[in-house]
Specification:
Blueprint: H1 3-16, H2 18-43, H3 48-83, H4 90-99, H5 112-145
Helix pairs in contact: 1-3, 1-5, 2-3, 2-5, 3-5
């Protein structure tokens, strides 16, 4: 395996871990949305801290979902490039992505390390969105206990 293929394979394996982040985030998002829908019917208007926390969890969850889609897409592309029988050719992929409107023409022709750095940045944003969800839950719990 060439060094570029090895680098792409390693990056793809790292990006695959974004699925675990997404699973946890989806669980928290679903719980927040269910709480926002069920709480008013069960106990009346929820306390402001609880409603604010649930809304923040849901919004951060939607942001995480966006980044999860992008990270998953990059992982699939890297898997394809790393596992193909032909030499790694970013030109054909760049052309296809540009035609689909997914890659600006200015970003065509970047080396593998720049592409991987961009994908890792997206994954960091994905993880950050999950962290915001966790802190929003913790903040809501603290606010409810101090009432």
């Amino acid at each position: 395996m060439t060094p570029t293929r090895t680098l792409l394979a390693g990056a793809a394996a790292l990006l695959d871990q974004g699925r675990n982040v997404d699973r946890l985030s989806r669980l928290l998002t679903a719980a927040a949305l269910i709480g926002l829908l069920v709480c008013p019917a069960a106990i009346g208007p929820p306390p402001l801290a609880l409603a604010t926390s649930a809304i923040l969890v849901a919004l951060a969850g939607f942001a995480e979902l966006y980044f999860a889609i992008r990270v998953g897409f990059d992982a699939a592309l890297f898997h394809r490039l790393a596992g193909g029988p032909e030499p790694v050719d970013f030109g054909d992929m760049d052309q296809a992505l540009t035609e689909l409107g997914l890659l600006p023409a200015a970003k065509r022709g970047r080396p593998a390390d720049a592409r991987i750095a961009g994908a890792r940045r997206l994954m960091r944003f994905q993880i950050l969105a999950l962290v915001v969800q966790v802190f929003a839950i913790a903040g809501g719990a603290v606010a409810l206990t101090w009432r």
